[in-house]
Amino acid sequence: MELGVWVTWNVRGLCGSGKRRVVKHAVSKLKPTVLLFQETKLDAQRQHNLEDMAKTLHMGLVTVPASGTSGGLATLWRLGSLEVVGLRCESRYILLFVKYPGIAEILLVGNIYGAHTGENRRLMYAELLEAMRGHIGGMILGGDYNTILKDGERKNEAGLGVGDREFKEFVGEAGLLDFPLHNSQFTWFSSRNNGIWSRLDRWFVSEDLMMLCTNVTQTVLDWSCSDHRAVSISFGSKDFGPKPFYYFNHWVLEDGFQELVRDWWDSAIVEGWSGFVLQSKLKGLRVKIREWRKKKGSWGVEKIKILEESLNDIMQRMENEGVSENLRRDRLVILEDLWKEYRVEERTWLAKSRLRWMKEGDRKSRYFHKVCKVKMAKKNLSQLEFGGRVLEDPNEIKEAIKQHFQTFFQQEACARPVLRSPGVSGIGGVLHNSNGNILAYFSMSTGILWAYEAEVLIESDSTLAIGWTLNSHRRPWKLQQIFNQIDYLWELVSCVGIQHILREGNGVADFWAKQGCGRSDVIWSFTETNF
After folding, report:
1. Strand, helix or coil at 322?
2. If both were cysteines, with which of 54, 142, 281, 300 could 8 make a disulfide (CB 3.0 to 4.6 Å apart)?
3. Which residues pair with 438 in a beta bridge?
4. Whole-angstrom Cα distance, residue 53 to residue 400?
């Protein structure tokens, strides 16, 4: 589902005609489907200025007048793109309930201007949550929330405060998804205190809507006439050419698949060196699998729908005609196929979302769908900086990547060192903290050794850590990236051992570990050893 481009902007006033021309020119280039303004600072007597702008942009309009010289909201939408079926306006937000072509459910579109004081902020959150709980369908909320969501979204000022934590609780309770900005980190700037930067403006999308949309991208516009930057969110995908071939483990459960692979692999004859033979066979096998896939016909959700319809027909016949032996047998066959397709669909989404730590369970694939959509949106490639330019067109991005690797692989050949044994050998290491900062390092000679003599022995008094290292199936998924690095290094160093040692048997290390609990400085010492 493609919803186009939506834009939210705290404009800091639209009172002057010059300011309105600048804003209109900035947003008209994007041709937004929906446009949200905060802090228009236009009271009820000057709403005609917004009406004139909406007519020029060929957009519908709903406004909330400013209170004096502060506040004021405006929500605009491209005429013909959606149908407004409901409306709720308050001083701090506008909620539109709209019908969008291609979406059966009603969408809730929110224009939010966050309150500054704690009491008003909590009241606004309570009202919004009440409206969201009573709504069945997708939600899109944009605006200036006057708070940040997490650490790192504010610079040169204190971190998360009480208001920020309340905002985070509101987002979690509402089931809203936040997406990173692709081309910047902050949306608001103040020159006080040597400059304060924050991300106050953003878009949120509900989990339900993510089931219908792909490749959600959130970006900021260039700085203009406000101390806030406009934030856009786009829904839809760009054409980057043919999609890669994916293999799913559940295919081995299909009748005839293993025989197909085995027969073709044995019959294919390719001459050349082993790497070329393997590459050629895999390319040919991919074609065979695609042909097999097309011959299978209905697949996944489509096949499940057909089987469910057949099951309903059989149940209706059994109700009208009675339970015959043939109907009972047909029902059991359909149920067997249906449960098989349920498991196949679940495993497919499990593989796509890469949740290896979860075992296959009941047919609750909605969670896997949501995880896949969120990962796709966060990893979506929308821009690429190359040669001092920012590229957005898919063809330009593909050409830039091609040029990069062509240049890389066309570098002149140079002499590289040849490893021989025995020879001069040495040992070295680096100690990092959890942030990746180097705390200490060491380097020393081990003399003239053969490769098999340079053995590394790792001792630990933690049976849990040793178990995780030696058995990949027992590793916590949160530490998987660290263990991937350990596995990689283990392959590079063939002569390495790891063993358990009692704490009493490693008294020196245990002593310094306990000493480090209360130290503010670092002790690091090297001991010369003759090998």
Report:
1. coil
2. 142
3. 432
4. 40
230 and 124: one domain? yes
d(CA 512, CA 503): 12
Distance of CA 188 to the CA centre of its chain: 24
CATH of the domain at 116: 3.60.10.10
Structural contact between residues 312 and 330, judged by C-beta atoms closer than 8 angstroms: no
Same domain assignment for residues 106 and 201:
yes
Among residues 17, 98, 100, the alpha carbon closest in space to that of 56 is found at 17
Integer Cα distance of 102 and 104 in angstroms: 7
Read off the tokens for 131: 């409206």
Residue at 500 is within a domain: no
**369 shares its domain with 387:** no
3-class DSSP assignment, residue 387: coil
Structural domain of 388: 382-409
Determine contact, residues 109/34, Cβ cutoff 8 Å. Answer: yes
Are 363 and 325 in a shared domain?
Answer: yes
The predicted-structure confidence for 312-348, as pLDDT tens digits, reads as follows 888 888 878 888 888 888 888 888 877 777 777 666 6
Classify residue 405: in a domain, yes or no: yes
0.70 exceeded by the pTM?
no
> Is residue 32 domain-shared with residue 74, that is, in the same domain?
yes
Tokens encoding 153: 């979204």
Residues 156 and 29 reside in one and the same domain = yes
Q: Which of 346, 350, 366 is nearest to 358 (CA)?
A: 350
Task: Give the separation between CA 122 and CA 127, rounded to whole angstroms.
Answer: 9
pLDDT in tens, 271-285: 888 888 888 888 888
* Residue 90 zone, left/alpha/beta (φ > 0; ψ -120 to 50; rest): beta
The answer to whether residue 299 sits within a structural domain is: yes
Structural contact between residues 384 and 400, judged by C-beta atoms closer than 8 angstroms: yes
Q: How far apart are the first and last CA of the chain?
A: 67
Q: Is 273 helix (H, G, I), strand (E, B) or coil?
A: coil
- 180 preceded by cis ω (within 30°)? no
Q: Does some domain include residue 66?
A: yes
